[in-house]
Amino acid sequence: MKRLLNLLVVLAAALAVAGCNEPKKPEPKQQPQVVKKESTVVVPPAVKGKWKAVKIEITDKISKKSTVLTVGIGSKEKIPGSDLTIEVENFLPHFVMEGTTLTSESNDLKNPAVQMRISQGGKEIYKGWLFKLFPTIHAFQHPQYGFALVGYIPA
């Protein structure tokens, strides 16, 4: 009986000690930091200065009318009848992406792309690319206007 009593005392003490120790909560996992690297545009010497302007078709989704606006490379043009302005930054006739570098593999029109900005009322609302062969890739969505690269003018 004494043995049983000692066993119960030891068991009660063990339970009391175990009850005092709260189970450790797992530490929250750290989310890896994603560092978005800004792409670099490199216009090779074989392309630089060889193109004067691009033609961008602007479609008014409400009136169903389209107009083609010619915008010089490095220039801005206001879209008639709107408060939108298009600025063409770069034109790459054979667009390729090598890591974070965007460049043109040649001066041949194999994958034409234009880097542009669109501002509304003086505020930038889009900065990106229009692709002739892939008009829906990274396409800018505007409630009234649609944009497409439709032509290019050599220097």
Molecular structure report:
- By secondary structure, this protein is mainly beta.
- The protein has one domain (40-154).
- Helices cover 12% and strands 44% of the residues.
- The protein has 1 helix and 10 strands.
- The strands form 3 sheets. Strands 4-5-8-9 form a 4-stranded antiparallel β-sheet, with no helix packed on it. Strands 1-7-6 form a 3-stranded mixed β-sheet, with no helix packed on it. Strands 3-2-10 form a 3-stranded antiparallel β-sheet, with no helix packed on it.
- Strand 8 and strand 9 form a beta hairpin.
- The longest helix is centred in the first third of the chain and has 19 residues, at 2-20.
- The protein is extended and about 105 Å long.
- The chain starts with a helix and ends with a strand.
- The mean pLDDT is 85.
